[in-house]
Amino acid sequence: MAEGKNDVKIGVYVCHCGSNIAGTVDVEELTAFAQELGSVAVARNYKFMCSEPGQALIKQDIEELGLNRVVVAACSPRMHEPTFRRVCEQGGLNPYQLHICNIREQCSWVHKDGATEKAKALVSAAVSRAYYLEPLESREVPVAPAVLVVGGGIAGIQAALKVADAGRKVYLVEREPSIGGHMTQIDKTFPTLDCSACILTPRMAAVKAHPNIELMTYSEVVGVQGYVGNFRATIRRKPRYVDESLCTGCGICQEKCPWKAESEFDCGLGQRKAIYTPFPQAVPNVPVIDPEHCVYFLRDGKCGACLKFCERGAIDFNQTEKMVDVEVGAIIVATGYDLMDPSEIGRLGYSRFPNVITSLEFERLCNATGPTGGHIVVNGQEPKSVAIIHCVGSRDRKYHEYCSRVCCMYALKFAHLIKEKIEGASVYQFYIDMRCYGKGFEEFYQREAGEGVTFIRGKPSQVTDFAMSEEEQGKLVVVCENTLVGRTLRVPVDMVILCPAMEARADARDVARLFNLTQSADGFLQERHAKLEPVATANDGMFVVGCAQGPKDIPDTVAQALAGAAETLALIDRGSVELQAATATVDETLCQGCGRCEEICVFHAPTLSSDGRLIPVSSINEALCKGCGVCAVACPTGAISIRHFTRQQILAELEALSGVPV
Amino acid sequence: MNGFEPKIVAFTCNWCSYAAADLAGTSRIHYPSNVRIIRVMCSGMIDPIYVLRAFEAGFDGVLLAGCHIGDCHYISGNMRAEERTAKLRRLLHTLGLEDERLKLEWISAAEGGGFAETIKEYVGQLKQLGPSPLRKEATA
Amino acid sequence: MKYAYYPGCSASGTSKEAEESLQATMRYLGVELTELEDWNCCGAAMATGVSYLLSVALPARNLALAERAESDLVTGCSRCYLNLIRAVHYTQHNASVREKVNTLLAETGVQYSGKARLRHLLDVIVNDVGLDVVAERVTRPLDGLRIVPYYGCCQGMWTYAQFDSVEDPHCFDQLLATLGAQVVDYPLKTACCGGTLSMSKRSVGAKLIGDLLAAAGDADCIVTACPLCMFNLNSFQKEAGGTRGTHFNIPVLFLTQIMGLAFGLPEKALGLQRNAVPVDSLYRKIAVGAAVSSGEASASGPR
Amino acid sequence: MGAQPNTLERAWTPRTLEHTPSSTDLVGNDFSLCYQCGLCTGSCRTAYAMKYTPRQVMNLLQLGRTDEAVASGSGLLCTACYSCTFRCPRGVAVTDLMAAIQRLSLAQRHADPHIRRFYQAFMRTVERHGRFHEVEFLVRYYAPNPLRLREQVSVGLTLLRKGKITLKPPKMQSQKAIAAMFRKAAQIEGRP
To answer: What pLDDT is attached to residue C297?
Structure first.
């Protein structure tokens, strides 16, 4: 430190916080105690330190007494540290020469006896730490004025459009051949029953048309470097074998292609060609060739029908995958969800009986663009009775503890659609609790009850084709306790619809690793704060929206998407970001260049560089450093220390704490 | 033990455990005043030196608290802390200190009650254990 | 392959045939079973009705014995298996139970630390011996026999053994298919036979058994993986028929009995003469089947 | 935290559930987590014969009305097949709780004397020999009214004819030790 011992002038400010602190801690005694501590120039107490007059008091002392350290003994630093840092700054003192001593949350509120003694200990510790505080400069770096949106479902689409409308460049990356996501597979949307495609496809078109959006479908982000404001993402563009710039989407190639495969879009209920667009309104309306099924690839050179018939010559079998790098200031992760595979739950007979289907499969059956043209048929006939089983894998410790939040509502929607399409069909809802919490949801529930849907409260134990009576012959029987009566029921039906849990993407872990995000216990990507930071993540500049963060319906997804857009805009429109000041520093004279820091840092902040030196030394990229201190502890020579949390500072605090008896 | 009051220092990470201690406060959940909290940014920041020095300085117990595994604000700092604590324990053992004297707990920001419980429990444990051998030396 | 073997009470009594056939077939397959020395009753379904601790400690003692003998413990009785695996699981996951149980075991001079691994006979046959080997040893394929594989409810705890799907197990079906039998898809394959209700609460027990037998339809026989189930399904066909105004007369065999038949072991060695419901009908069928198929059976033999 | 005792603690008071594991002795969760979905009942083959289905029993426990559950005798029909426990979405140890109810019913006079004697006869036999012994069991079971032995005659005779049951009891070395184990358990669980 430049200044000698006596140059350190510490001011201690004890807050009464009304009676919150003063009620338990003897503030006068505490102040007197502080006054006697070394290097303390002044110690005062006041009713509310955070109030205007309280702040003025501190400013005044800094100016008049030339304080160069300030200790505020009050509430938690998580509460008012920013406030008092500002105060110091206004008083002409470096904001980092402030130390907050938490004598409310961690003292006066949790102790009766010994509160004052503890407060003393905490204050003396704060003072000795403050002694070693050093001024820090927080630096600013410019922000790349573009946003990367990962995932082209409804969340990604909405976020991209909003950012683009604000005049910012957007890169929208989608893994599949077309954007649209799960929502494109859905028939109607609850509770308004408007057609999913009708509300979605215009948005998809808008994305394609938007001058500020660069759309990359059939592509995946494979690498991310950099830090908030300055990310560089590497995107792998899989070969389409069709030239996007030439193709007009006339569809002749699909028409002529003789080779078929199961349609992923129709959940395997229908077929598609080897060259295909997943669905008619696909965006971009450019097909892809699936080498798994294209005979040109399988038996080299045979066929090539598409090649022959494409007038534009857009077919290009020699395409190879391309890597593209983009520079963005912020990233929105909207990678969506997977539907749980209910065959895991053997007793429900999913993969065993063809007329036991999942909710998504039913959406396709119901959908006019679906494999049956919107006619609900299984085993070649219209079911006259349908059982809908809720909470399949949701609210179940053996699979997923959480509630998937949408099933109750779409189950009601299904009931409506079935009754609408099949004259006199009976529908049974097997539920545990009906959760219709959203706007217009409860009304929809009532309406369905009115339509003569049967509600059976109970979790079915089995779906079997084992008939125990005449009426059960040739039917599926759902076995379940009617818990409201307390008797076991056997309900024979023609079709069973399972409502499987929405679960985190199978590759959620890889995505988390790729973008340096955390996952919550349920596997979904984790937001920074459940309430106040719903779309921000632990990684500055990265945001997670939609079902990637947890199960939710379309309205909630869109709301999050727009929140994500707002967050990214707020970030890049600022033009620059302030970097965390309490970062790691390397004492080059001590560094032995072992590289331990480089290995251990998950943010890749430290790097070994030996320009001209015999042994390389570590240097910290402060833009990347989060100041977690993992490297400092790992450093075998103690060359690395964390600003504002130096060993000296913490040990000083520790020593002082031990000084005052319990 | 005739009225022995153990001295405990707790190193808590800023994001979870320190917040938990604050929550205990805002929810007015009382716990023994034997504990002194030092705030660090991450449990991965806690240098073994601190722990050793704490015992040297006569603390009877040291509590290291961080976010639950998977919740670390810095992705994996708490895992580092876990590894180090294991190593540290062996060292303390050779110094003749009981394992219980060094405690590692994951306490999330939501677990105010949990924090208080941990402290109560720990104080009880240490009372059973009696003063740290090193403390006797320190005071002697 | 060497294992400590736990016969259990019903296998050594009411279901002797299970025990006899088990010994014979295992010998034939080269599986070495040494009877667990000084084993005791696992408490069946009764212990829980009297004492929670005994319901864990009784089976635990046998595990402790196996632990002392330093070998894996195999049992052919699903009910015993359930109690044993339950003891493994409970002592593993609950310190207070482990402690109490060990204080009880101390009375008998043993302790259980959870080392001994527990195996179900079916597990051993399917995974250790292997179906390929079983196939090789078949000399009298059960061609044309329509067999119901009855796993029994004690599957429920197999989840801790982790060797087959609990909700919809298949290893037994595969085994029977390997023997050349035509396996009937049995909807109640894991439904409970009622255990001792057949004795303690006849009205209920008989109904459960009745449902099981009825579900077997016109199959040639039922094969169980548990001597207790076997005893129930065999011994109460009259009462069971009574509950639904029909008469049942379907042979019920233990899995090693049917295996023994396919291996061409002598009927006596398999205790087939002891089965409550005579099994002669099966002999005829197999004899016929064998005559027809023996030719290609050897030709298409794995060797 | 733990301000007033939760339903569990109330239900486990010695008066209501003696000779039963304390909540901490159960592997799996206690009934307070049950959300009454009925999967246990749906999976239960004997529920049809019970006054209260397994789910209802869980509910009675939650309400602290254990005695009512005990009196219903539902526990006596549990075959301990563990399907409910295995499937329970909340991880409740349903089977063990049914067993607890069963123990209480059996400990009471008004329990179905037939079933009651059945359990006691079985366990007594095991206590004496360390293993099960059919003949001694049947004797103990039917001692009070030998006429009912008729029920088992057909079965018994087949067993004898087929040489499956013998009159001489099984022999094992540690019989005494097993008996001691029984006594210890009774002592720990505070049973007469």
So the answer is: 39
Walk along chain C (303 residues) in steps of 10 and give the mean pLDDT of each run.
91 86 96 94 90 92 94 91 88 83 94 89 92 95 92 65 73 94 92 90 94 94 93 93 94 96 93 92 74 42 37
CATH architecture of A5-136: 3-Layer(aba) Sandwich (3.40)
Q: How far apart are CA A324 and CA A321, in angstroms?
A: 10
Q: Is residue B3 part of a domain?
A: no
Q: Tokens 């008797």 map to which residue?
A: A487
3-class DSSP state for residue B8? Answer: strand
pLDDT mean over B34-56: 95
Element housing C208 (H / E): helix C202-215
CA D130 to chain centre: 19
- The first and second tokens of residue A342, run together, are 């209910």
Least CB–CB distance from C167: residue in A345, A466, A468 = A345
Any CB–CB contact under 8 A between C165 and chain D? no
Q: Are strands A146-150 and A10-15 parallel, antiparallel or unpaired?
A: unpaired
- How many CB atoms within 10 Å of residue C38? 17
Inter-chain contact A346–C188, Cβ cutoff 8 Å?
A: no
Q: Give the pLDDT score at D21.
A: 45
For residues A567-571, give the mean pLDDT: 96
Note whether A617 and A610 are within 8 A (CB): yes
- Give CA separation, A363 vs A197, A267, A451, D113, in Å: 12, 10, 20, 57
Are A133 and A97 in contact by the 8 Å Cβ rule? The answer is yes
Please say whether the dihedral angle defined by the alpha carbons of residues A594, A597, A600 and A602, taken in this order, is positive or negative.
negative
Which residues, including other chains, have CB under 8 Å from residue A100's CB and lie 6 or more apart? A71, A72, A74, A76, A77, A80, A81, A84, A126
Q: Which chains touch D (3 or more CB pairs under 8 A)?
A: A, B, C
* Burial class of residue D142, CB neighbours in 10 A (0-12, 13-18, 19+): middle
Same-domain status, C284 and C159: yes
In terms of DSSP H, where are the helices of chain D? 7-11, 14-17, 39-42, 54-62, 66-72, 83-87, 94-107, 113-129, 134-142, 150-161, 175-188
**Residues of chain D contacting C48 with CB distance shorter than 8 Å:** 80, 96, 99, 102-103
Domain residues for B25?
A: 8-135
User: What domain range is C217 assigned to?
Assistant: 138-293
Quote the number of domains for chain B.
1
Among the partner residues C41, C57, C202, nearest to D131 by beta-carbon distance: C41
Cα–Cα distances (Å) from A191 to A376, A390, A418, A484, in that order, read 21, 17, 15, 27
Q: Tell me which fold the domain A580-643 belongs to.
A: Alpha-Beta Plaits (3.30.70)
**How many contacts, defined by CB atoms under 8 Å, are there between B and D?**
4
Question: Does residue A186 contact residue A196 with C-beta atoms inside 8 Å?
Answer: yes
Which of A591, C89, C57 lies closest to D187, judged by CA? Answer: C57
The answer to whether A284 and A373 have CB atoms below 8 angstroms apart is: no
Segments making up each domain of chain A, as ranges: 5-136, 252-309, 338-503, 580-643
ipTM of the complex: 0.79
- Tell me the shortest Cα–Cα distance from A651 to chain B, in angstroms: 7
The answer to whether the beta carbons of residues B61 and B103 sit under 8 Å apart is yes
Find all residues with CB under 8 Å of C162, minimum gap 6, and list them: none
Contact A466 C188 (CB under 8 A): yes
Query: C55-73 burial by CB neighbour count: b if 16+ within 10 A, else e?
Result: bbbbbbbbbbbbbbeebbb
Contact between residue B36 and residue B130 where contact means Cβ atoms under 8 Å apart: no
Whether the CB of B87 is below 8 Å from some CB of chain A: the reply is no
**Burial of A507 by CB count in 10 Å (0-12 exposed, 13-18 middle, 19+ buried)?**
middle
Q: Which CATH number belongs to the domain containing residue C229 in this structure?
A: 3.40.50.11810
Q: Is residue C299 in a domain?
A: no
**3 state SS of A16:** coil
